[in-house]
Amino acid sequence: MKEKDGGPSCSECGIRNCYRRDKTYPPFCLTGKFAAAAEETRKLYRGSGIDGRIARAAAEIEGEYYGRLTRLEETIRFAMKLGVKKLGIASCIGLLDEASLYAKIVRTAGIDTRTVICKVGAIDKTRIGIPEELKVCPGCNESCCNPALQARILNEWGADLNVLIGLCVGHDAIFNRHSKAPAVTFIVKDRVLGHNPAAALYTAKFYYKRVLDEKTFPAPRTISRRKAPERKKK
Ligand code: SF4
Description:
Layout: H1 17-20, H2 30-33, H3 35-46, H4 50-65, H5 71-82, E1 86-91, H6 96-108, E2 112-117, H7 147-157, E3 161-165, H8 171-178, E4 183-187, H9 198-202
Helix pairs in contact: 3-4, 4-5, 7-8
Bound molecules: iron/sulfur cluster (SF4).
């Protein structure tokens, strides 16, 4: 690994002594370098605050159900362990059917729930500075995703926990920044791979090897070829 690459880190470590502590740490190991910070985090997870409660709930689920629960069931068990009464759902418009079914399952578990779609607020993309040509459907009203409003509505409702269903890359970051309640992800969006982004890694050494070559990494589409039609005045 070259110096310009930032040097080796956990992704280049074949030892992983931090897990079982039955080998020797490599010279670049982060566990040794951050020993004092690690102790601070241990206290955080041991404590009675929200980080401690979440850390222990997640570890208990791992221990109690390892390999037996789907992520769907794990998110609901997690909510039950935390004593969640109100579970907010921040959903993508493209996964609203899945969100509706998820809401039904949450209610079956005895937890109140409310869903807010990504297009809430109905603000056309051009109004946040996106050119008409970059819409999926130029010439149409195309509302931008509004994760900050999704979070705000769920904050005002008093959600104890929020669950993300298919928010876009980046919109999830905004939602997490604005959500007062802790937020976990149930579905990550992958428009090409049926919401299974790891499939790109499983196939990256052969079928998807374009991602490992900077010359073949997919380029953005050029917008000049997609001239936007005139928008009809209403
Ligand atoms: S923390 Fe240390 S032992 Fe663990 S994966 Fe990273 S470099 Fe390897």
